[in-house]
Structures are given as structure tokens and as C-alpha cells.
Amino acid sequence: MSGDSLNRTRNIGIMAHIDAGKTTTTERVLYYTGVSHRMGEVHDGQAVMDWMEQEQERGITITSAATVCEWKNHRINIIDTPGHVDFTIEVERSLRVLDGAVALFCAVGGVEPQSETVWKQADRYGIPRIAFINKMDRSGADHLRVIDMLKTRLRTNPLLLQIPLGTEDRFRGVIDLVSMKALVFDDDSRGMRVIAQEIPAEYLDDAQNARQQLVESVCELDDELLESYLEGDTDIPVDRIQKTIRKGTLDLKITPVLLGAAFKNKGIQQLLDAVVEFLPSPMDVPPVEGKDAQGQSLSREVEGPFSALAFKIMNDPYTGNLTFLRVYSGKVTAGSSVFNVNADKKERIGRIVQMHANQREEIKEARAGDIVAAVGLKYTKTGDTLSDENAPLLLESMEFPEPVISIA
Ligand code: GDP
């Protein structure tokens, strides 16, 4: 894959405490990206609803270990990330293969003990995150309390990118603090269409104060910006703010925070935009590390010989086993042989498929950065490395340094 298309790939997980709305959010993301991908930009609320109803009849599959969708010319692979501590090894496996994550919180429940466990795991893997505070429509929704919990319980540095327009069941939009626009979720399209407006007068003071805070936090991330800010230059261009937020997120210095109500399609487009804008591509993460045949440590750039990690095996009624792979370097073609480094055996990859919301697409080859499912592997187990036979690389095995204690 060329660097350019790799730059336009996002491999993400959605981390959430049970009941925070992960299923709903994933479904809405798949609906929305499906609509916009097929129809171009969505202006017509009715067309969206027709499409959603058709899709609902056929059933959206979100039980796959990885589902691919498209947004604004980017390919987003959503890797299923279990939210429950009981599945901690599965959580670790999924964290191992993703580059960035959306951490979902309920606007009422906030940070739950289990969210803390998964958050710490993601810290250990150095995974950049954005936070989505969901269920802003619920009575008792309090995003400021959640933000406080992000600071005190998760010890992260949240950066609020939006303030809500309306509270609880009157939550009707957000004020985007970067562009300083009011984004209103249109009720006629059941929230799927977003209308950008001037900020209503009664919100202007709050919005200006919140933006000032945002600008100050952004300046603290960049010495040059801070210097000119302290000299009185507070008028920072929007693209500079965005770039600095992206860098701060990738360096794990901040967690951008967005608001929404997935159930009513509210905030989904802004969440997708933030995934594309702020989360890393496979080019932004360090080269994969492993050991060569002599046991020497080795890191491998994306252009290097083929290497991939099998992170999940699912039984499929039509094809038998589907082995989900994250390709780290090089490429592999359907029908070719690969070397399973753990089993010390050659294996043939029959077919390669990509799982979409409601269909699977057969592809000829998988390249660095891709998340795909291989059909026909016989010996490969979860956690095994597949590699070029002539340049074997054993990817680092997963470490589980801390025993996980369930909190009742
Ligand atoms: P998961 O366990 O994290 O996958 O959560 P689900 O997506 O299954 O959602 C749990 C419950 O919360 C369901 O009853 C959803 O309908 C509800 N829910 C999800 N998103 C929202 C939201 O934005 N607002 C409200 N009020 N309810 C929501």
C-alpha cells in the first residue's frame, strides 16, 4: 500500500463499559458511513431513513472481529474490543492490533471501575484515544462530571472540543469550539443531518469562555504557540489548532472529548470526523517490533517483508475458520504460502476477505496496515505470527504483567 493510502487508514477500537452504548454507536457509525459512501454527502434525511430501513431488514453484522467502513476518503477498520474485564486477554489482543481508540462513556454513569481497567491497559500499549460522552439526552446527563472523572480517575488530560446546546431531552446539538459554529442535529432526519448555524446569543459567553480554555490548553502543547499567545497573539488559525490537537493526542498528552447521543444519531458525524482528524494512521505508529530467526530484536518498517499477527479466529458457517490478521509490513496475496513462525510451518492462505457492515468482500491481497480475515489457514492459532519465509519475524508476544482483579 502506498504511504498515501496508509495515511488514510484508521485501525480503531471502541472501548466502553457495558451498557455505555458501544453497540448502538458502532451500528450508527456503520449506518452513517454506509449511507454517505453510497450516496455521497447526505443532504436528504428521507433518503437516509429509507436506506436505514432497508439495511435493518437485512441486518447489520457488527459481531465481526473487525468491520471496515469508509468516511471522507478514509478507511476505518473497527476492531471489536470487549469492554468486560472477564475478557481481559481478548481486550489485550484487540489493543495489540489497533492504532487508536474511541473511549465511550455514559453521560450519567461516567467512568466505571471497569473503564479504569481497560484505560490502564490502553495506557500500557500507548494507544491514543478520543473520548465520546454518550447519552447526553438522558436525564441526569452531566458531561462536566464525566470530564472531572477522566481527570481524577483516569489521570488523563481531557480537552473539551464541544459544549452542548440544550440539556437532557432538549439536547439538540453542540457548539464546536474549534470552528465556533453551532451544529444542530436535525430532527426531521432523526439526527442524521447536521445543520451548521451561528452560535445562539444566549450561548455566546459560555462558548467564548470554553474556547479560550481550549486555546490555552492547545497552546500549552506547543512552545511556539505558547510564546506567541503570551505575547498577546490569541488568534490561532483553525488548522493550526487541529494539528496541535492531533499531535497532542498522538503523544498521549491529551484526550479530545466529544458529546453525543448515539441512540438518536446525535454526534456520530463529529465522532467520525475526529477519528479521521485526531487518531493515528498505521504510518504514525512506531515500526512493529519482534525477533528474527536468531532471536535478535528487530523492528520492521511497513515496506519490509510480510509480517502479520493472527488476533482472532472465528468459526464461520460458510467458510470454516476465519483468521483475522493485522498486517504490519509487506503484503500477502490470496492463494500464496506464508510461514507460521510459532508453529514453524508453511501455511496456505486460500482467500482473503474484508468484512463490511452487511457483506464480505473478497480481496486479492492484504497490505501493511490492513485488517483482514484469511480463509483456509489450518495451523494458525490466535496470537501466532505469519511472516515471509525468507525473512521470518516473530512479533512480540503479549505480556500480561498485572493480574487483573475484578471489582464487584
Ligand atoms: P453496550 O452494552 O455498550 O453495547 O450498550 P448498548 O449499545 O447495547 O446500549 C445500552 C442501552 O443504552 C440500550 O438500551 C440503548 O438503547 C441505550 N442507549 C444507547 N445510546 C443511547 C443514547 O445516546 N441515549 C439514550 N438515552 N440511550 C442510549
Automatic annotation (TrEMBL):
Residue ranges of every copy of the Tr-type G domain listed in the record: 7-283
Protein's name in the database: Elongation factor G
GO MF terms held by the record: GTP binding; GTPase activity; translation elongation factor activity
Family per record: Belongs to the TRAFAC class translation factor GTPase superfamily. Classic translation factor GTPase family. EF-G/EF-2 subfamily.
Species name: Desulfomonile tiedjei (strain ATCC 49306 / DSM 6799 / DCB-1)
UniProt KW keywords: Cytoplasm, Elongation factor, GTP-binding, Nucleotide-binding, Protein biosynthesis
GO BP annotation list: ribosome disassembly
Species classification: Bacteria, Pseudomonadati, Thermodesulfobacteriota, Desulfomonilia, Desulfomonilales
Annotated GTP binding sites: 16-23, 80-84, 134-137
Purpose: Catalyzes the GTP-dependent ribosomal translocation step during translation elongation. During this step, the ribosome changes from the pre-translocational (PRE) to the post-translocational (POST) state as the newly formed A-site-bound peptidyl-tRNA and P-site-bound deacylated tRNA move to the P and E sites, respectively. Catalyzes the coordinated movement of the two tRNA molecules, the mRNA and conformational changes in the ribosome.
CC annotations in GO: cytoplasm
Localization terms from the record: Cytoplasm
